[in-house]
Amino acid sequence: MNDLCVDIGFKSVNHYGEQLCGDHLDVVEQGENSRVIVLADGLGSGVKASILSTLTSKIISTMMSEGLSLEESVQTIVKTLPVCSVRGVAYSTFTIVRIVDNVSAEIIEFDNPKTIILRDGKNFEYNRTEMVIEGKKVYNSTISLKDGDVFIVLSDGCPHAGIGNLYNFGWKREEIADYMLPVVYAGGYSAKSLATILIDEVNKLYDYKPGDDATACIIKVRKRQAVNILFGPPSDRDDTQRMMSLFFSKEGKHIVCGGTTSSIVAKFLNKPLKTSLSFDKSGIPPIAEIEGVDLVTEGVITMNKVVEYAKDAVGDNNLYEQWGFGHDGASLICRLLFEEATDINFYVGRAVNPAHQNPDLPINFNIKMTLVEELSKCLKQMGKRIRVNYF
Fold first, then answer.
1. What is the pTM of this model?
2. What value, to the nearest 5°, has the Cα angle with vertex 231 and ends 324 and 386?
3. I need a labelling partner for 152 at 20 to 30 A (CA). Which of 75, 198, 292, 348 fits?
4. pLDDT tops 90 at residue 260
């Protein structure tokens, strides 16, 4: 059985002074293990480029989601795209990556930079077949997926970074690959984090005044990793044994959130609960340790911070450096969920904590349930498989 999956993340930076990005990326699922990723780059920048790139990516992704072949979709979009009368080039370029059953990837490129593939610690060179559709050159490649592969899909704003400033001829494709290799193989980074690191460097090379829209989409091939979260005791005390047994019978890493929950787990495992005496300046309560559990944290306050980080992570990812390098409970949970996990199982207790019934505290039972719902929603947007079990 194929246990591979793909982690997809992207990051963009706008042309300096523009409110809208001229690049647009769409991801469409075709069944459980197949996806179509379309990165379109509109000519120029601003509103016109944004409209054209959005139109291009939406047309291609919609057609393919309805079952049309790659060739038909490309043919339609190439016929549809107008050509600039002054520059003689198409108003929008694009790259399509179609993941098939998590086994292979088909890449189709029209005037975008050639996709970089990192494999086995090297810049993997692959063959491309040239097709001429409606008088336009389109390149096609088919790659068998391998655990650890990283695809780097770029708009031309990335290789153009540094022109006339740090580099005479921009940031060459080979140089981008060389920059990303040690980052990728340092291990632990999610696709979104890798895209953020790359675009941050692009922005730096532009001296933080990008001369073009720049987008990087990272497709990371990896094996599935389960993470299980226990949050709160069950509403019926008689369900405690069943809840604990189900939680610890699951493969993968285990996170326990909440003071009462931690005490129940320690009793179930017959292991001492050791609370950390170090208090992080972030304001998040300290973590604890129980032998047999990967991470033990406080409950609602910590999870509220995790949700805050999750909402940012599916957007601009501006808070990455906080949770990516922090040592508090919320940061540790984020790294496990955002970067390590592909499958996340929640075990949520519905018991009402008497401490949360104080009217002076902004915490109640509904907030606890809402946190789980909001976090699950964000994790699904990251492409995670989510299952929530209530007790």
1. 0.88
2. 70
3. 75
4. yes
